[in-house]
Amino acid sequence: MSLIKEQDYGTPARPGEPSVSVEIDGKRVLVPEGTSVMRAAAECGIDIPKLCATDNLEPFGSCRLCLVDIDGRKGSPASCTTPVAEGMKVRTQTPELAQLRRGVMELYISDHPLDCLTCPANGDCELQDMAGVVGLREVRYGFEGENHLDLPTDSTNPYFDFDASKCIACSRCVRACGEVQGTFALTIEGRGFESKVAAGAGGTFMESDCVSCGACVQACPTSTLQERSVVELGMPTRSVITTCAYCGVGCSFKAELRGDEVVRMVPYKDGKANEGHSCVKGRFAFGYASHPDRQLKPMLRERITEPWREVEWEEAIGYVGRRMMEIQARHGAGAIGGISSSRCTNEEVYVVQKMVRAAFGNNNVDTCARVCHSPTGYGLKQTYGTSAGTQDFKSVDKADVILIIGANPTDAHPVFGSRIKRRLRQGAKLIVADPRRIDLVRSPHVQAEHHLPVRPGTNVALINAMSHVVVTEGLVDREFVDERCEDFAEWERFISAPEHSPEAVESITGIPAAELRAATRLYAGARNATIMYGLGVTEHSQGSTMVMGMANLAMATGNIGREGVGVNPLRGQNNVQGSCDMGSFPHELPGYRHISDDVVRGTFETLWGRVLHPEPGLRIPNMFDAAIDGTFMGLFVQGEDIVQSDPNTKHVTAALSAMDLVVVQDLFLNETSKYAHVFLPGTSFLEKNGTFTNAERRINRVRPVMAPRTGKHEWEIVCEIAQAMGYPMKYDDSAQIMDEIAMTTPTFSGVSFAKLDQVGSVQWPCNDAAPEGTPIMHIDGFVRGKGRFVMTDYVPTQERSTRKFPLILTTGRILSQYNVGAQTRRTGNTAWHPEDLLEMHPHDAEVRGIRDGDTVALASRVGETSLRVKIAERMPVGVVYTTFHHPVTGANVVTTENSDWATNCPEYKVTAVQVSLKHPAPVSAPAPVK
Ligand code: SF4
Ligand code: SF4
Ligand code: SF4
Ligand code: FES
């Protein structure tokens, strides 16, 4: 397989139908209005030389290499900045143009190191290519005069270098950082000959606001900005299109390899979720897959106090099957279960729930989505009839108002965060409801109209107050509600009650009533308003209520069923949506169909050849409780470090310690494997063959770039365990598993690997009614028929601040790290976040005698841990914040077992804590990094 090179059309596509006819070098082409001459030429197969233009950036017109002649126009205009006009006649090749272009190139080359043969970009350098294209053979000017050849290289970024001596000041990097990424970390300093690229205020990349997304590296036409992996390993020679294994944005990448080694990950332009962009994790943090910590052989031990013993697959799988059956013989069929992983593929997850239901003979299967987005599934199903977001990411390009609640997209969903910023720069308005002043509230060229710093645990009071304003101020979309919804009248009575008014809840939410009213008017008055939300909504005792509250608000204002509107969960892990779709919950078969439904169950019983239990099984917290009670004794955990990620660590470890058999399947030995008897090595995304489903219901292919380093695919291991337990479960390959999913799950019936390979990706439902998939849901009607208004009483959480625990802890993620950090901690990303920090408002710190960098004790009623403090103005008084990326901190030691009333999703976002000084930072200690 060779290296996949996408065509660069030079300037972005313009919207609209092709309507303008032009003739270029005798060829006629029809393009939309506003298209550049350069792009029109490219579309009819004529490549005009260029350096400063590339098709994901607006044209800039600085290099003057793309000059053309146009009939009736004076001089030779730049084709990148000249839009087409009806009847235009263009010539791209004349002796005069050739002469002009050679002259331009000569100037560039005369100030460029002539080390092409040893340059890491040799063969992948546009400057080199263009020198060839314009036929430059010799340079008349020497290097004696003033030049930039001695400028230093900035190697502060862990992944790429900036060799200023090779820079041609084309500004592509500067524009990529602004237009694509939205960070604006780079500028061109100076004028004329003095022009040079500067990061931040002229410091290094690491000192600047750079978030290491790599857009500038990708945009650079020379090797000025160059991945260090290319320098070290050489230019890649082949590529495979696959999907990022980090967050729920689901970016498509070209994994570019040399031999079997991944040289770099290049965001794929045709990837519909990311359109050629990426963040630091997806682009650079893939080294964990070849980290020496990877455990590649299965391991066993009888007791967790014994050392591990490496064994062959056969012994490990045989042991798991035998022990699981022994436990069932002793304690009953329901004494074992499994947890599937949102980091694994749909196919890998599907076989886990099948193993539990068909081979274990119970429904004790749950997924890590339990602890993040289970309220999304519940809330949206109750109101709209589908357990998923309503829009595609692209839809936000049509939003006039964006309401972000409990999400921090620039850190947790960075590529979508960049898309939101772009829309905001185009003029959309932003409302942020979050206790913290997240970056989107104010960043370069972005300023939220309203920041509603809602007190943790009071979201439902906030959303009810917004709906109250809509109903009482005459902002309801009556036509939409009358035609499309039910139970409105009752809900209207409920929500109009004075106790839901912004004035009444001001003392609960902490949000001034006037601000809340103004924000609501902005949302309700917009032509298109959309809601984006994250775990700050779901990880609460009223997570499900809040999801339904947002659904009510969107329906009442008619913001459902077209582009630019909707209610959209931003999913944390890469395959949260998929793991839920695949029937990982104890009460639901694939496609969110209840296990008690005889017809649905019958379909699976016929296909699987087993009678399935009609009662829902145990959820994760129930499994832990039952283990402590001695009735649940065997657990299979797929790719999830529950000790680190689940709340109340002490309770989790007590449960695992009580079990007779804990089987962990993962890449690395982790905190959970300390309590395991069997370790089954898993595969990284580079070895997997399957699909992930992202936050917009998009099913993306995950293609292997190498064979499993462990010798077995994860789905094979699960099948073999089922077989060892006497249940015949076998597939030739993962495509066959997807075929079974399609056969049994109506929303997936049109999905196959062949289809995905043909069209790139599809959004479910993908079936006969929607063969190309469904980007926008609920267009003509809700999936459940009518959208249902649901009463959403605000019930305060039991977790309150007290004299003993006067602060509220809320937890979350930061950009460079991912979840429990198992992957990102084993990459260069630790340069940005080597430890979890406790963010604290200066006032809360001062009254406790705490300074930046001090080590503090963080205690709740269930546990205590210690970590360093970062004083942060963005925190509100009374609220502290930390991440859970490092096991040494063990943030979940302090989180409680409080959970969402409907789904048991833990209340990670509200823990009453006290913070006290433990060790002052040494005077010379560095202040905590961001
Ligand atoms: S890596 Fe991204 S954020 Fe950093 S300078 Fe380049 S484009 Fe800007
Ligand atoms: S670093 Fe690269 S992209 Fe940026 S101005 Fe220099 S040559 Fe152009
Ligand atoms: S935004 Fe998410 S999916 Fe995209 S590259 Fe970053 S981590 Fe990967
Ligand atoms: S490519 Fe048109 S001026 Fe540089």
The ligands found in this model are:
iron/sulfur cluster, FE2/S2 (inorganic) cluster
Largest sheet: 7 strands, mixed
- Amino- and carboxy-terminal Cα gap: 41 Å
On the 0 to 100 scale, the average pLDDT is: 91
Strand order of the largest sheet: 14-13-29-28-27-15-16
Helix content: 25-40%
Gyration radius, to the nearest Å?
Answer: 29 Å
Number of E-type strands: 39
User: Count of helical segments?
Assistant: 28
Strand-residue proportion: 15-25%
Low-pLDDT segments, ≥5 res: none
Q: What overall form do the CA principal axes indicate?
A: globular
Counting helices, strands and paired strands, the structural category is: alpha/beta
Characterize the structure shown.
With about 950 residues, the protein is α/β, with parallel strands linked by helices. The protein contains 28 helices and 39 strands. The chain is about 30% helix and about 15% strand. The strands form eleven sheets. The protein has a seven-stranded mixed beta sheet, with helices on one face. Strands 35-37-36-39-34-38 form a six-stranded mixed beta sheet. α10 (about 375-385) runs parallel beside α19 (about 545-555) and α22 packs across α24 (about 650-660). The two termini are about 40 Å apart. About 60% of the residues are buried. The model has no long low-confidence stretch (mean pLDDT about 90). Bound molecules: iron/sulfur cluster (SF4) (3 copies) and FE2/S2 (inorganic) cluster.
